[in-house]
Design brief:
This protein is mostly helical. The chain has one domain (3-122): Substrate Binding Domain Of Dnak, Chain:A, Domain 2 (Up-down Bundle). Helices cover 80% and strands 0% of the residues. The chain is built from 5 helices and no strands. The longest helix is centred in the N-terminal third of the chain and has 27 residues, at 18-44.
């Protein structure tokens, strides 16, 4: 089952845990923002295509998907996965901030920070 479908089922499936549903939504949003930012950086080239920046955005994509899966199955390791995800997303947000007024990277940083907040609320 696709992540979006699993998230939707939790969100509407009896409303058991609205904090979890919001957290999963924010994880999905952060992942999507990292994907858009990654493509944007590749397309822009130059400083935007720095290997460190590209790897960090890929890390953000991967860690949000992994954290979502841990939360969805209520793994005993969910708190660790959430904490690690927050740490990675904080690095992604700072890296995006370093590019100044780039609207795509500003949106990515904001999505990462909203996700971090949701992860802290869920912890």
């Amino acid at each position: 089952m696709e992540l979006a479908e699993q998230t939707r089922r939790i969100a509407i499936g009896g409303g058991r845990d609205p904090v979890l549903a919001l957290c999963l939504e924010r994880l999905r949003d952060a992942r999507a923002a990292c994907e858009v930012a990654l493509q944007h950086c590749i397309d822009r080239g130059a400083d935007h295509a720095d290997p460190y920046t590209l790897r960090l955005l890929m890390d953000g994509i991967d860690v949000t998907g992994t954290a979502s899966q841990f939360l969805l199955r209520d793994s005993e390791f969910s708190p660790i996965a959430g904490s690690f995800c927050s740490e990675v997303l904080e690095s992604v947000a700072h890296e995006c901030d370093d590019f100044g007024e780039d609207p795509v990277l500003m949106a990515c940083a904001e999505a990462c920070r909203r996700c971090i907040e949701a992860l802290h609320e869920h912890a």
